[in-house]
Amino acid sequence: MAPTTLVSTAELSAHLDDAAWVVFDCRHDLANPDSAARAYATAHVPGARFLHLDRDLAAPTTGKNGRHPLPDPRAFMRTLGAAGVDSSKQVIAYDAQTGVYAARLWWMLRWLGHENVAVLDGGYAKWTDEGRPTTAAVAQPAPAHFVGQPRAISVSADEVMRSIGQPGHILVDARSPDRYRGENETLDPVGGRIPGSLNRFFRDNLNASACFKPAADLRLAFAALLGNTPPDAVVHCCGSGVSACHNLLAMEIAGLSGSRLYPGSWSEWGSDPSRPTEKG
Question: Annotated catalytic residue: which of 26, 211, 238, 245?
Answer without folding.
Answer: 238
